[in-house]
Amino acid sequence: MKSKISNALSDFFFEYETPRQVLVRNRRVGVVCRLIQLGVLAYIIGWVFIYEKGYQTSDTAVSSVFSKMKGVGYTNVSGNEMVWDVADYVFPSQGDSSFVVMTNYIITEGQKMGKCPELEGKCSSDGDCEGGSLKRTGHGQMTGVCVNATKTCEVLTWCPVENDHNIPDPPLLMSAENYTLFIKNSVTFPLFGVTRSNLVEGINYAYIKTCLYHPTDSPLCPIFKLGDIVKLSGFNFKKIAKEGGAIGIVVDWTCNLDVAVKHCKPKYEFHGLYGNPDETDKARASMGYNFRYAKHYMEDKVQKRTLLKVFGIRIDIIVQSLARKFDIIPTLTAIGSGVGIFGVATVVCDLVLLYLLPKREFYKNMKFKYTDTQTQDPDSEAGSIETAMTK
């Protein structure tokens, strides 16, 4: 018993097993094998290493965005002249990565709390106006009175009621096309300890004062003309200014940190999200972008307000990032998986040899060794009986 255990341990530690190989001289099988291996090699080099950068590890950035609009607008509505600056036409206040630039509006001045007739919802008697009820599309609480002059229900609300059926055309603030937007963006890739700003090398105070973004002439300038943003997003400024819309500005940081960090620079992309139903937005049920804004004040001890229905261009600044750098672990992983895929060639060629070729029985006998345990001879090669069919 002790001798058997000793022999088993000796065999385990001091013997080496290797698979048996059979060299097959067959042109068709050889060509199939080499073509499969060539395809696997092209996949590893072309897709895994060159396209997917399988030899690099990746990281996304932590980012912050600061924005600032500049420009002055002028309107003259029924002889009422007004100059609009940044504090008037940007909502919310400066600095956010998502904001609205007003391009058109409907103003209702001198509203005060009281009772006045609705604009819509015809009635023939007081019974059609249920007192104390509210309508989803109404402007206030119904008093139970049907106003004969307008044939609409009387409501308790801010009077006079806003009439927003006629949107100004052309837009009142067409001058918004010349407003400028300044974007300041910084990103940090924590895994690599790299921090970058869109104010890259070569962009200084003097350059910023004179530059204006252009896709080919000034692709790194962080100052954008609103009209150019709309044009690059695929919209027409007059159409989107009338009823509003939304535009996405993508700041793309795709960096290869195996080269100098100074080559890690942003690229700007512009996408029209919604706004022009006859250009890109096919959902005509709800067109444009608008909201209401009220300015409250006191007059003769009576609280009043000026209501504005604002139509504007919503700007969403979106930062997307991906940095890559060489790492030995993903490199070895990619090489290991590629070597494993080479086994596909062996499997396919074995299937062709053993099941498809006319001499498949001959190849089977050459490939496999059959062992008879009943006639095992200790002095022979594991007591095996090797039979081969020759033709």
Structural description of this entry:
25% of the residues lie in helices and 35% in strands. The protein is an alpha+beta fold. The strands form three sheets. Strands 1, 5, 6, 7, 8, 12, 13, 14 and 15 form a nine-stranded mixed β-sheet that branches. Strands 2, 9, 10 and 11 form a four-stranded antiparallel β-sheet that branches. It has a two-stranded antiparallel ribbon with strand order 3-4. The protein is elongated, with a radius of gyration of 39 Å.
Write the layout of secondary structure elements.
Blueprint: H1 2-14, H2 27-51, E1 56-59, E2 62-70, E3 73-77, E4 80-84, H3 86-89, E5 90-91, E6 98-122, E7 141-147, E8 152-159, E9 180-189, E10 194-197, H4 205-210, E11 223-225, H5 226-232, H6 237-243, E12 245-256, E13 267-274, E14 290-299, E15 302-326, H7 328-341, H8 343-355, H9 360-367
Parallel strand pairs: 12-15
Antiparallel strand pairs: 1-15, 2-9, 3-4, 5-6, 6-8, 6-15, 7-8, 9-10, 9-11, 12-13, 14-15
Major sheet attributes: 9 strands, mixed
**In which range does the helix fraction lie?**
10-25%
* Beta-strand percent range: 35-45%
Count of helical regions: 9
Number of strands: 15
Please state the structural category.
alpha+beta
Residue-averaged pLDDT? 85
Q: Indicate the low-confidence ranges by residue numbers.
A: 378-391
- Oligomer state equals single chain
| Cα distance spanning the termini | 48 Å
Shape summary: elongated
Q: Give the SSE string.
A: HHEEEEHEEEEEEHEHHEEEEHHH
Cα gyration radius (Å): 39 Å
Quick description:
The protein is of the alpha+beta class.
